Amino acid sequence: MKSLRLLIVSLIVLSPVAALFADNTDDIADWRTYPLAAHERLTVNLRVKPTATLADEQWIAIEMVNAGDAPIHVTDARYLMARTDGHFGKGPPGRQPSLASGNSESLFPAAWAKSPVGRMTIPPGTYRVIEQPSTWSSALLGLGPPEGQRITAVIQLELVLADGTRVATKPKFTPFEFTWRRPDTDGFERMRSRLKRLVASPKFRDSHADLVGRLLQIDEVSSALTLPEALAGLDKYGRMITGRDRLARFVDRRFPNDPALLASLEQRLRRMDPTVLHDLQCMPNTWGDSLLDPLLAMFAGDAANWRLTLDVLDLHGSPHKANADLARRMSHAVVASGELSDASENAAVTITAALKALGRTHDRAAVKHVKPLLDDKRPAPVESISPSRLKKLPPFRICDVALDTALVLLDGDAGAMYRPLDVEGLDFAAIVNQAAAQRDLLIAKVKSRI
What we know:
Elements: H1 2-14, E1 17-20, E2 32-39, E3 42-48, E4 51-53, E5 60-66, E6 72-83, E7 101-103, H2 104-107, H3 109-112, E8 120-122, E9 125-129, H4 131-141, E10 149-161, E11 166-168, E12 174-181, H5 185-200, H6 206-217, H7 219-222, H8 227-237, H9 244-254, H10 259-270, H11 275-281, H12 292-301, H13 306-315, H14 324-336, H15 347-361, H16 398-411, H17 415-418, H18 428-447
């Protein structure tokens, strides 16, 4: 039996159908075929299951048929699917995500799994991409109605071959359609199993993240996911993988303040796991006093944790505002880091971040550490043009950032001093100069208060 299984696997690998991330891609004889493009020995089709549901893992495929004996090399590739039914048909295709889209990595994942990126090829025979378009389209469609919904859509595709030839859909947007239904009882069971599998083995793909998010929103599906399974999934997600926020929000929504959840969060804080701050940002319903001390330890341990720690505290009522001891501990950590007096090449960025963090500690006594920087005219990194300061402008100099910080520490709000100022009706250069002059007047007033 083992030999037979090995033989079957070998035949699948060596067959002319190069199926990606699919369990049974040959069983698509009843799928509709929409010709997309052709060039010499290459034909590109869209294959669509006539009726599909959110429980179907495979129901739409981009199919490339190489009728020659040699591989066809591709240098670039992209596609876009977009619904045209209902309100989706009132604007240009793709104005808002409604079905899957992808690029070279989506269409040739095996090449992009290598480092450096391997050569993108269409082997002789039939090459199908099923997992990515099926998964992402399912996530965007969600649950269909029991009676079924007719979906009309278009697809645009372009391949750039090694010789520079562009193989593209003609017409530019090729129409197709299918019926989208609500899964039956067996389908919901398959969705529950799939969610558990996806959470247990997360992947760095937008399509994966969106599908996990969609399944977590469906109570009949997500109710099967236990807290230990969800926490184990968070442990596997890693720091930068997409979709982590969806799982953290589900945990907070489904298991708020569960003792096991609080214990897990506390343990992760104590071992200085940076991902726990991202998770806590997504958990407005989960909080306990046991988290405060290890959270402050993370704040003091690394300047990279300042912003996220403060975001978490603000999410839970900013307890340091009413607790002078907490505020002092936090401001001391900022001052002790030495970043307010950074003299490196990147000093403006470092000092600006430290000033902003110091202001958010709300330790009024810490304003003395801000005073020297009220004379620092060096440019500050400009993040955005915000109407909240001088109606239009963010701080442009380090002294401007220090001014904001001093006002927050002294008065609890920087905006009150700015609101009487008027810089309307000036061109941008004039506004910058006028803002600097007006801020210098405010700086002089603030200095007299310190």
